[in-house]
Amino acid sequence: MGQIRLSGIVKSYGKEVVVKNLDLAVRPGEFLTILGPSGCGKTTTLRMIAGLEEPDEGDIMLGERTVFSRSKGVVLPPEVRGLGLIFQSYALWPHMTVAKNITLALKEQRLSKVEIAERLEIALKQVQLTGYAERYPSELSGGQQQRVAVARLIALRPSYLLMDEPLSNLDAKLRTEMRASLKRLHRDLKATTVYVTHDQIEALTLSDRVIIMNKGRIMQEGTPYDIYHHPANLFVAEFIGDPGINLFSGTVANGALDCGDVTIPLPEALAARGGEMVAAIRPEKILVSDQPKDGWQEVKTEILQPTGADTILQVRAGETPITLLQPGFLTLDEGSSRWISFAPEALSFFDKKSQDNLREIA
Ligand SMILES: Nc1ncnc2c1ncn2[C@@H]1O[C@H](COP(=O)(O)OP(=O)(O)OP(=O)(O)O)[C@@H](O)[C@H]1O
Ligand SMILES: [Mg+2]
To answer: What is the distance in A from the centroid of ligand 1 to the CA of 70?
Structure first.
């Protein structure tokens, strides 16, 4: 296993530049997720690493090996790059049994019959499909087919693993289970992994590091913790988190941020800076009381959404909508009052024009 390194990668389709001068380094054994909205260039990036798509410019290295270089004129085909791939459509061969699907690549590697049989058995056991070896893909559910695709990688033991939205066709429960098996797969193989998704939960739960992409560019690179707690700009702040982050746009006045219906406390440095900015706070970070408290702001509850463990509260301060998240299954009366407060350490502030996080800059 080794690093995956992309430098200066540019890719256009016709006039549209879909990947713009991308630099990316995945450490040996790391699980890196590329997260971003539809059409931002995730699949294109993964396909370039796999060799299924040629960049216009730049270099791609797998370990110490250059597999693509425009300047040096190197283009290695996908089959010699030593990669394991799972794509959104699991691409099992419909006319082959589960066993054949899993062992096809092993036979091409000329492993011994004993070794192949052993790897097949281990792989099927790990995805809990022992006994399904002689079935055809059409005789399996979608989730079972996806597990066969995972078993194929377990058996292949690749040093590099590329996955493109491998869980997108599964129902919620199976998705959670499969997230755990993918995490286990990565732990067992210790393969350098690039995982593509537009699902932030997958990105936060699976990754060592996350790259947030938008319109072919990297918006932020960091651990799941950092991406969630220290978004580098408003795009990342809004993209990550469900329910979404609360944003309050306002002007500095009297040492605080005046946002009309709400007033947000400001750190001294930002109060001194003055001007217009946007304050952001996650729903679960807003303090809530069911009794009036000194200096706390009264809000009216409008809509409750209990999800089981938590309840999402849509409330209003004057005309300003605010989302709160409270633990427990709440059943309040619509229109009842609550009192909220913003803990200074839970707030982020963004420049209104550049949209960059001001605290990261300060
Ligand atoms: N073969 C192609 N020909 C022309 N345009 C393409 C081609 N493949 C992708 N594109 C365009 O490139 C952009 C990036 O596509 P890509 O498939 O990388 O997006 P993505 O981030 O994977 O999105 P999604 O989350 O929807 O899968 C899109 O605007 C898409 O329309
Ligand atoms: Mg895609």
So the answer is: 21
The answer to whether 6 and 160 are in contact (CB under 8 A) is no
Which ligand neighbours the alpha carbon of 34 most closely? 1
Ligand 1 pocket list (CB less than 6 A)? 13, 18, 36, 38-44, 198
Please confirm whether the linkage preceding 243 is cis (ω < 30° from 0). yes
Cβ neighbours of residue 10 closer than 8 Å, sequence gap 6 or more: 17, 19, 20, 21, 22, 55, 56, 57, 58
Residue 115 has phi, psi (to 5 degrees) of: -60, -45
Task: Specify the DSSP class assigned to residue 233.
Answer: B
The DSSP element (H or E) to which 184 belongs, if any, is helix 172-189
Q: Which residues contact 14 (CB under 8 A, 6 or more apart)?
A: none
Choosing from 42, 214, 219 the residue with most ligand 1 atoms within 8 A of its CB, the one to mutate for a pocket test is 42
* Per-residue model confidence as pLDDT tens digits over 164-204: 988 876 778 878 888 888 888 898 889 999 999 999 999 99
Cβ-proximal residues to 205 (8 Å cutoff; 6+ apart), any chain: 179, 183, 224
- pLDDT by residue (tens digit) across 133-152? 999 999 998 778 888 988 99
Cα-based distances in Å from 297 to 73, 105, 285, 289, 345? 64, 63, 15, 10, 18
Domains defined for the chain, CATH in brackets: 4-238 (3.40.50.300), 239-361 (2.40.50.140)
* Amino acid sitting at position 354: S
Q: Tokens standing for 226?
A: 């950092």
Top mutation candidate among 15, 22, 35, 43 for ligand 1, by most atoms within 8 Å of CB: 43
Identify the pLDDT of residue 361.
Answer: 46
